[in-house]
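Ticket reopened. Same input as before:
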Amino acid sequence: MSEKVQYNEKQQQIMAVALRLFAENGYDKTSIRDIAREAEVNVAMVSYYFGSKDKLLEAVFINHFKSIRASFKVILNHRGDSATDKVSKIIDMFIDMLANRQLFHRLMIRESGILKQGPLFDMINEMKTANRRLVEKAVKNGQQLGVFRKDVDVFFMSSVLIGSVNQNMANTRYELEHRNITKEQREIIKHERTETLRTHLKRMFIAYLTDTNTP
Amino acid sequence: MSEKVQYNEKQQQIMAVALRLFAENGYDKTSIRDIAREAEVNVAMVSYYFGSKDKLLEAVFINHFKSIRASFKVILNHRGDSATDKVSKIIDMFIDMLANRQLFHRLMIRESGILKQGPLFDMINEMKTANRRLVEKAVKNGQQLGVFRKDVDVFFMSSVLIGSVNQNMANTRYELEHRNITKEQREIIKHERTETLRTHLKRMFIAYLTDTNTP
DNA sequence: TTGTTTTAATTAAACGTTTGTTTAATTTTG
DNA sequence: CAAAATTAAACAAACGTTTAATTAAAACAA
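Engineering reply: fixed in the latest deploy. New output:
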């Protein structure tokens, strides 16, 4: 029953470098030679281990996708105290999920814009659906308890959740990359921004779900 | 004082095709030969008119950027009745701005993820700043009138505005592209989604700005 | 432990394509 | 006739990938 070691050290090294370069410069702007140089392996090793550049990207995707899928399951089974607590918990866990996989999400967001089919397309689709289900469950729970308004839109909320977090992180990175500050300061500011995002997103969602003054 | 005709018919044709292919398949996955074929011109015409593929992208960007900048000016000078009306108007105009330039925004979102410097970088930065100023102005107005809470975050709100609209449109497109429906039905659904987005984003923002039940 | 064989890993070089771009000749336009 | 537009062809560079040769590691028999 023990989990097989899927990738050896060298393979993991290649995948790590590939992820970073794909995320920072884009898949097409990253050559196999770039990856090989930074991973300190021969160019032929990529084909030898992964078959092709496409398959390497796929391997990187599957690798992260598995752990993301697991994260979703954890969130879905979480039992919060109140309806609003559940919404808070979803936001927390979703932000954590993205914050812990920043490089992968940068890559994913970029690729999701042009994908039309194939395994990567399917994976991204599954994640979006999982996110919507998550929001739907929490919303319905609150509605049944009579705490949340009935006229809320799950598709909209899901878009806001994903889009806001993405944009907030992108803006933060965008801003930090062009300031002359130390790495430590960078991480502090990044952390502050994430915490602010957390607080305000919760407040905004709960206000949207519970506010009775707006029509 | 008459506006010079910047681009002749053929140039505009090339730019239109380039924008579409860049947006749909990505800049790097689009070859000059692809553009030339669909625009029904010789490959050499791109270099002849624009200098290079890079410059063509830049020309496409500048072209749209100018009209976007103009749109921002209109929004910034708008005089709504109440503080909430002003917020509503900003959301309306921002959504219209993106909805009317869907291809360009798809391209821009994608490229903004990997740009590190250069003219395109500067343009995108200006747009982000303009958006933040816009939100800031409306928020301060409402706060001075005592209608809005004091503890709201402009950086956060700007991220939510841009991110939510982007994500909503991306999700809608993603979903529609894989349904067997006519173009007319597609447009109807797209329009519905945009209207829902409008309504709910306004409600959410105003709830966030005015709600007094949440801490 | 040895020596031997087999498999896996690693390399430099080459391959065929595609890419963006340029050239030089020709046609169209003013 | 001169300038602009258009073309087919060619160019060098970069790309992903493969090949064939070599080295390192693992497996095995004595």
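The radius of gyration of chain B is 20 Å. Chain B touches chain A through 47 residues (CB under 8 Å). Please confirm and we'll close it.
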